[in-house]
Amino acid sequence: MNRRERRAAARRFQKASIGEGSTASNSQTANEPSVSDPAALYEAGLAHMHAGRHLDAQLCCQQALKADANHADTLHLMGLLSLHANQRDHAMEWIARAIRQDPKPEYLASLGTTLQQQGRYEEALKALDKAVQFSPDDAELWRHLGDILVQLKRFDQALLSFQHVLKLDPHHQDALYKSGALLNQFGRYEEAIAHLDLSAEVLPNHAPTLQARARTLYNLKRLEESLAEGRRAHQLDPDNADTCNNIGAALRLLGRDEEALGWFDKALEIRPDSVATLDNKIISLFSLHRFDEVFVLSDRMKSLGLNTSTTLWNVSLAHLLTGNFEAGWPGHEARLRLPSAFYPKFPQQRWLGEEEIEGKTVLICADEGLGDTIQFVRYVPMLAERAARVFLAVQEPLQRLLSGLSSVSQCVPMSAVSTLPAFELHCPVSSLPLAFGTRLDTIPSATSYLPSPARSHVQAWQDRLGPHTKLRVGLVWSGSPSHTNDVNRSIPFRLLARILDVDAAFISLQKDPRPDDKALLEQTDIVELTTHLVDLAETAALVSCLDLVITVDTSVAHLAGALGRPTWILLPWTPDFRWLLDREDSPWYPTVRLFRQTATRDYAAVLDRVRSELLTLISAR
Fold it and tell me: What does pTM read for this prediction?
């Protein structure tokens, strides 16, 4: 503010203080503050500040402090004015002086705000802690405390603060929104959406709430609703890169990758260095089989220092899916650095094929899903030919089955890995293809490499199934709902109606069918004995009694293939890397046939082909 503006402000203050045309001896007008009344001058200053007349407010404060240098409210107001002017050090001094006079909760809150703006979050937290102690029923103080805890990344404590706000004020919109966002972050999606629904009712067009609702609905796999909320958020805030990215992610899971790419590009126009968006774009290009573009984009990310473990992982899958194992297996190691990785941290050296292992004891430990363990345990006999001893640690459902491997000295569930005797080296089971330098033409592809189920268990299943008068066909139609690609690899049970009219005996191998599927399953003649399938050793015994297994890409597909049983696998347009592209056979499993979606991504057409092949098989019996 220049000298002329300061003089004008001083004249306005003089008029407000003693009245136009008055002299010093005139009596004070009834409605104007006395120059000797600090409380009245403070109120006038506060009114000026609220009206945006900050210099006038400052002049009032100066007059008030002339009358009473320790007037706490005025000292605090000077702090707020300094804070507004980004004079944070001055603000700290003024507010600290106010607190020394009277430690009011609002003064402590202002101190917390100032410390926040200086990045001094721990000190800000202490100030707000004191404030809520003085005024425990003040919802805004608890909300402020929650905000600081978020900045400190103490999200669990922040949630408790916001939940306390809602105890004091159940319709506090900001606390509803922030509680919902944190609950979503913690994976408590149903609670999150309940909070966000109420937040949207209190403030219908709040873009951050709509964005949080879109993210939560996405996590609940309510994708169409997520997409609708994302579009609403975009209308309100078109320059938000996260919203554009979230819309693209929903479209991607809906199989609308071409549309998704447009939204990812919009997000990158706003924020070109968004790694999350670049990774999502890679996935959509991958899904569209535009692999050359995947590799170009990943190279650009690498040159800019933007590639992450997720980037390396996705690119490795593209190499593996297209048969470039030499490039794919090394990148596949990035899985161990993903947030979802659960491989234990062993103090011993990790073996990846470079060191000689003759005479040494090696632990092979599961690091991905059940199917991955089944697929790659084929390498264990090769390892045992070199090493003195091989220990195996696997998922609980596989422990009984794989204990029968003759090349394994000891097999334990992963929960008991600490009970194993000493070992010198360890290797994740999914790293064995890298350790053995596997190429397409060197895949160990024995027809059956798992231990044969115990005869007594097989006979028990034969007895349960009864006379073998028809083709026995085992069915699996869905995998784990938590699998990242579940929306593409699982199919609804109702689609199986296309094959159930053929003259065969169908046996369910489906563990934990989803509620809608279970209701329909009960209306069919499918044999349902899965309560006896306590682990995969039991499933192996049942599979050994069947003529054919028809399954989506689940652990049962690997189990049946590794047992050398005839297995037909239903695959999405873009399958998991191990099934490669454009072939009906599998180099990993000689007895497997692959039934793939076309670019239409239609499972109905896949099942029509399966039905036709089933009829041919039945007629040949």
Answer: 0.84
